[in-house]
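A protein record pairs a chain with a discrete description of its three-dimensional fold. The following entry can be read in just this way.
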Amino acid sequence: MKLTKAQTKSMAEVNRLVALDRRLTEDERLFVLENFQEGANHDNSAMGAFFTPWGLARDFSIEVPSGCDSIVDLCAGIGSLAYACEGKAKSIVCVERCAEYVRVGRKVAPDAIWIHADVFGDWWKEFDRFDAAISNPPFGRVRADGYDGRYKGAEFEYKVIELASRIARWGTFIVPQMSAPFRYSGKRDYQESITDKCRKFLDQTAISLDANCGIDTETYRNDWHGVSPVCEVVVCDFESVEQEEPADIPTAQPVSMAQPLSQLDLFAMAA
């Protein structure tokens, strides 16, 4: 991804802030969140790394339960959602496979526990069941080594939600609009609409993807970096789902050995 002169200048300041030994101020943390370019040093299209705009992350946090003991942020990126939700729980665990994003994330969300690992690995064995899971996962047919859940389709976002159902009691997720069983963002009114791929996920997992309180992600469509996806925020009550033991999820191969991910199909359509 080629940066503009303004983006290059902002990234230089981001790198300076991240390199500081001290804890960043609130303004500095927000500057990093808003100006870090995920595609500057990585093929973020292949990785599915498109970070949540700050405004959307802030609205997203409304649908995360307050007073939690623990929250897990799956595919955390540099911690946009974790930062927005840090007042919701006593502890937040961020799981991210990209070492560079973890390095930056530790400055954005310094009070979180950062785990550099494949989300489908066995990192969860060190923790009790989480009160809530949050995620803006990669969208579409992204490679998911190590996944072995009840959902047998190809969409990465559904695999993350299925994993979350095994390790958390509640979930709040950003998904492509076509992956939600409703249309709200960018529409004149709420509409129920279930695609074949969404029906497959619902039937295979018995997980209900419920509507949020009225978050229109269209408001932030132009605030993403390099893409402009149409999304929805879905919520899940995992307590009502009959679960298999998390131990059924095999250990993923180490991050350093992971194969390159395939190109996303969703963002090509959403751009």
Observations:
- Residues 247-271 have pLDDT under 50 and may be disordered.
